[in-house]
């Protein structure tokens, strides 16, 4: 699965946006089963997501992401899935390095590692795992933090719709997702100043409700139309932090509630 705005996450060039600077932070979310349809075969689900974001527009951005879920199926079986990713985006999205591992019941079932570089006509991906391979993706394809910044820029301008192709090294590292992002109206954080809950650092900030739909351009349904692989909804705060998460896989949803939030030092990087 793509890590979206978290893997970083989760457009334009990596740099500070007008009025916005991405805040280095570590956010922990408790994940629970939401809406459920009978054909999903799922009886229960719980998990935890950890998103650790560091760096700045001068030095580039690093993401460490982990998403552990335990599924129970309707036949009584259970499975623990552990997705671990690390990535680094250079300033101005000159390159993107990534490593992703997926474990099922503590057994490694998938590993992807590689680097994507921006060039004049296209972005070139060099994969090391699962096999050595080179491929080209479009010059307009965005890396995860690029995409996050583009959403913030669009939101700040009052633009409510954004379409972009995204590359985050997901799955075997050969897939580019087409995405559509719907951005709601700006609102103020409901967190009260002086509160002591996990979302206390978000008091006084504005946010936008955002829904990003991820499409596999190579897949179509029986009618010949594309349907989302999944949709990610969240509150995107002006400093790049996400809250009120919801992953929609069609026949079931997963909801995420912030359990902890730690802000890191922004580092010395002039606004630009």
TrEMBL record:
What InterPro entries does the database record attribute to this sequence?
EipB-like
Domain of life assignment: Bacteria
What protein is this chain from?
Cell envelope integrity EipB family protein
Record the organism. Roseibium salinum
């Amino acid at each position: 699965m793509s890590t979206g705005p978290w893997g970083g996450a989760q457009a334009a060039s990596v740099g500070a946006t007008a009025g916005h600077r991405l805040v280095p932070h570590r956010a922990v979310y408790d994940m629970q089963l939401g809406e459920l349809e009978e054909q999903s075969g799922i009886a229960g689900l719980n998990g935890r997501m950890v998103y650790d974001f560091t760096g700045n527009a001068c030095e580039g951005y690093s993401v460490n992401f982990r998403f552990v879920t335990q599924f129970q199926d309707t036949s009584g079986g259970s499975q623990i899935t552990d997705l671990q990713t690390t990535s680094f985006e250079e300033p101005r999205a000159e390159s993107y390095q990534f490593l992703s591992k997926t474990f099922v019941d503590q057994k490694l079932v998938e590993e992807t590692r590689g680097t994507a570089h921006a060039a004049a006509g296209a972005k070139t991906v060099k994969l090391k795992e699962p096999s050595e391979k080179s491929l080209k993706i479009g010059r307009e394809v965005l890396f995860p933090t690029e995409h996050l910044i583009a959403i913030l820029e669009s939101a700040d301008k009052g633009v409510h719709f954004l379409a972009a192709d995204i590359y985050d090294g997901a799955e075997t590292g050969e897939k580019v997702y087409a995405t559509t992002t719907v951005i709601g109206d700006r609102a103020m954080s409901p967190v009260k100043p002086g509160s002591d809950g996990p979302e206390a650092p978000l008091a006084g900030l504005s946010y936008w409700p955002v829904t990003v739909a991820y499409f596999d351009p190579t897949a179509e349904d029986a009618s010949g139309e594309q349907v989302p692989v999944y949709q990610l909804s969240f509150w995107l705060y002006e400093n790049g932090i996400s809250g009120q998460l919801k992953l929609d896989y069609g026949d079931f949803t997963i909801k995420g509630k912030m359990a902890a939030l730690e802000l890191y030092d922004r580092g010395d990087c002039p606004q630009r």
